[in-house]
Amino acid sequence: MTSIDLHCHSTASDGTLTPAELVRAGAAAGLDVMAITDHDTTGGWAAAAAARPEGLQLVRGAELSCRWHGADPAIPLHLLAYLFDPDEPVLAAELTRLREDREQRGERIVAKLRADGVPITWDEVWGYAAGGSVGRPHIAQALIRAGLVKTTDEAFASAWLGARYFVPKSDLDVFDAVRAVREAGGVAVFAHPRATKRGRVVPDELIVALADAGLFGLEADHEDHSPAERAQIRALAERLGLAVTGSSDFHGTHKTVQLGAFRTAPEMYEKIVAAASGAPVLG
Ligand code: AMP
Ligand code: ZN
Ligand code: FE
Ligand code: FE
C-alpha cells in the first residue's frame, strides 16, 4: 500500500526536525510520498531535496497563513499550497511579508509576557526559530524552559498564548491566497477546515465560494477533526467536486502526532500532481 503524508513541518518553521532529518524520518516511517509544508516559507525545500532518500517522493509545498474577512472579527485559516513556483513574484512577496509579520508579532507577544514579569527574551525565541518562520511554538519553548508550562499544549491554553497573550498575525486574504497559489502553478488545499480546538471555523458557504475561486481540496483526515467532522468534510468535498486529503501535520516534538498517522489516498494525490504545474514532484 502506498503511504502518502502531505502535511509536515521542519525547522524551516515550527517543526523540530531539520528538512534533511524530516525526509529521512519520512522514509524510515515507511512513507512513499511526503510533503514539506512549512508555515509561510519555502526555506526548507533545498535541504529537503538534497537529503531526499531514494524511493521517497518529495512534494514541495507550504502552509499559508490566511484570513477570511467575511466574519467580524475575521477568521484565521490555513491553506496548504503544493507544487507552486517558488520564484513567482506575487506569491514570493506575500510569503516574505508573512514571515516579517510573524517576527513583529512574536516580538509583541514576548513584550506582553515580559510586561507581566515573564522571564523570557525575544533573543531566546529568535534563537529557537533558528532562521525559520517564527511561530508561537517557539515562544512556547521559552515558556517551557522558564518552567511556566510543561508542554506546548499547555502554552497554547487561554491563560497563555491561546488568549491572554495572543496577538494576531496580519494574514493573507484567503481569496487572494487561492489566486496567488494558482497563478504560481500550485494547488491549494484547505488545511484542517473544522479544527475547532484552534478557534472559530468558517461556514460551509465560504468553502463553496473558495471552490468557485479555485480551491482544489479539503484536508479531511487530521488529528484535530472528530470522525463526524471528517465525514462531513468528505461529503462536502464530494458535493463540490473537491479532492480530500489526510495528513499528520507532523511538527516533531512540538506535537505528539507521528509521521504517517493520517494519510492521503493515491488517487487524490495523483489528482493534485496532475493539477500542478509550478514545480515537479522529486523522485
Ligand atoms: P502560529 O502559527 O504562530 O499562530 O502558531 C500556531 C502553530 O502552532 C500551528 O501551526 C500549530 O500547528 C502549532 N501548534 C502546536 N501545538 C499547538 C496547540 N496545542 N494548539 C494550537 N497550535 C499548536
Ligand atoms: Zn505549525
Ligand atoms: Fe495549520
Ligand atoms: Fe501545519
UniProtKB/TrEMBL annotation:
Classification via Pfam families: PHP
Annotated ranges, domain Polymerase/histidinol phosphatase N-terminal: 4-68
GO MF annotation, one: 5'-3' DNA exonuclease activity
Highest taxon listed in the record's lineage: Bacteria
Protein name per its UniProtKB record: Polymerase/histidinol phosphatase N-terminal domain-containing protein
The species this protein was found in: Actinoplanes philippinensis
